[in-house]
Amino acid sequence: MKSDHIRTLLKDTAVGTSVTIAGWLRTRRDSSGFSFLEVNDGSCLANIQVIADKQLANYETEIKKLTTGCSLVIKGELQESPAKGQRVEIVADSIEVVGWADPEHYPLQKKRHSFEFLREISHLRPRTNALGGVARVRSRISFAIHEFFHQKGFHQIHTPVITTSDCEGAGEMFQVVTEQELKDTARRTGESESFFGSKAGLTVSGQLQAEVFAQALGSVYTFGPTFRAENSHTSRHLAEFWMLEPEMAFCDLSCNMDLAEEMLKYLLSDVVAHCGEDMALFDKFIEKGLLAKLHHVVDNDFVRITYTEAVDELLKSGRDFEFPVSWGVDLQSEHERYLTEEAYRLPLIVTDYPASIKPFYMRVNDDPTTVAAMDILVPGIGEIVGGSQREERYDVLLGRMQEIGIDEYEYQWYLDLRRYGTTPHSGFGLGFERLIQFITGMHNIRETIPFPRTPGFAPC
Ligand code: ATP
Ligand code: MN
Q1: Fewer CB under 10 Å: which end of the chain, C or N?
Q2: CA 43: distance to chain centroid?
Q3: Positive or negative torsion for Cα 367, 368, 373, 379
Q4: Is the pLDDT of residue 190 over 70?
Q5: Residue 194 has what pLDDT?
Q6: How far away, in angstroms, is 431 Cα from ligand 1 center?
Q7: The Cα angle at residue 403 between residues 397 and 407, in degrees rounded to 5
Q8: How far is the CA of 281 from the centre of ligand 2 (A)?
């Protein structure tokens, strides 16, 4: 059905135009001789007000029985609105009730519901102002990511969801088996008889495959779903999340950091420019000062410090952290947040972590106890980006793999990239939902993805 978007009607359409809208009723208010209907179609946060006169054929039989959630098709004329805060309203010529929403059972009545409650009805929560707004912002940022990389001449690579290499080596993979294989476990079929001929799992990162294409196309990115079977019940972890992973040949760590910083600033500016109404809602109801925070990030250089400097800063803070700090430990969220929220009050790029706490593919520094890693930390969240310059020297990489017991034959293809035309190259992984969290101010990452998956929870 062809209908007009409320977003367009509210902004640009001339008074006097005949219009058709298709949407859902938010509220109905009766006056003498007519009713006010507030209708939303999802095209924007705002509703449009519809005047339904008692002369309408179905006024008594249907319109006066409308409740929140009913779906409607309304034809009418756009008129100047005498009400405050809206340019126009629709005076209806006809209102067709497409679907009723039994008020006895429809859970989204006009009041504020907790996000915990809304998670229990994830099939209905996009109809709320906040979650509808998150969905629109998410869509816009996804678009802006493609636009940014397209402008920079990157090529998008679709890396596999099913993979046979555990990139992070953290043992947090979901294994992929067929139903038949499960039935056959009684007979214990060997790996070689499995569907792919070797153990397969859902990807934890597309990086290694992106490296393959960076070594042919130069600058590439992959952006897709990523899976981690980590049993962490935090407000920043999902079992299924989206990760953006650019990978660049002939690019060292500082080139990598420059790109990440430029990209983040681009995305923040873009969303403020294009999703003003939704962002204002988040600023008002979700995180006070959100827009000022985003402007502050866009307007200032990110602070760049080494891991060693970060540890010194934490030690001299005199703070009593839950996880004690010393050189060599991985930074916990409480440390990351102290650094970015209190010590520097800006996004922070921490570089040159100890090799012992980072994956095998990161480039070994000259010292040689650290690697050319870079994590970006932001206020309120902590790590949002994890990246590095990759080890491009065949012998050093092989040595690292042997040291930590990675099967070099399984990764022969990865080593080959260093044997034939190797290049200094680098890249990073941006957790898309953590970015949405930062941008919307949502406290819990479960509100940033349409259908969150966490331990014990995967509805719809
Ligand atoms: P963390 O220490 O916070 O668990 P990580 O070191 O495991 O993160 P990386 O392996 O470097 O993260 O992944 C790159 C990015 O992906 C992270 O910076 C983060 O933004 C995001 N990310 C990682 N794990 C998750 C998860 N379980 N849910 C959502 N986003 C995640
Ligand atoms: Mn992790």
Answers
A1: N
A2: 20
A3: negative
A4: no
A5: 85
A6: 6
A7: 75
A8: 31
Tell whether the model's pLDDT for residue 33 goes beyond 80. yes
Q: Measuring from atom 11 of ligand 1, which residue has the nearest CA? A: 386
The reported pLDDT for the residue numbered 169 is 57
Q: How close is the Cα of 409 to the center of ligand 1, in Å? A: 28
- pLDDT tens digits for 272-287? 999 999 999 999 999 9
Per-residue pLDDT band for 187 (boundaries 50, 70, 90) equals: low
Atom of ligand 1 nearest to the CA of 385: 18
Which pLDDT band, with edges at 50, 70 and 90, does 231 fall under? confident
Pick the residue whose CA is nearest to atom 23 on ligand 1: 431
Report the pLDDT averaged over residues 346-362: 97
SS3 328: coil
Q: What are phi and psi of 262, to 5 degrees?
A: -60, -40
CA 426 to chain centre: 22
- Distance between CA atoms of 127 and 217, rounded to whole angstroms? 42
Structure tokens at 171: 């043992």
How far is residue 94's CA from residue 69's CA, in Å, rounded to a whole number? Answer: 19
What is the pLDDT at residue 233? 86
Mind listing the pLDDT tens digit for each residue in 43-65? 999 999 999 999 999 999 999 99
Burial profile 283-305: b = 16 or more Cβ within 10 angstroms, e = fewer: beebbeebbebbeebeeeebbbb
- How far away, in angstroms, is 207 Cα from ligand 2 center? 15
Q: What is the DSSP letter of 56?
A: S
Name the amino acid, one letter, at 237.
Answer: H
User: What residues does ligand 1 touch, defined as CB less than 6 Å away?
Assistant: 168, 228, 230, 236-238, 241, 243, 383-386, 429, 431, 433-434
Dist. CA 205–CA 234, nearest whole Å: 20
Q: Which ligand is nearest to the CA of 359?
A: 1
Amino acid at 306: T
pLDDT for 68-107, tens place per residue? 999 999 999 999 999 888 999 999 999 999 999 999 999 9
**pTM listed for this prediction:** 0.96
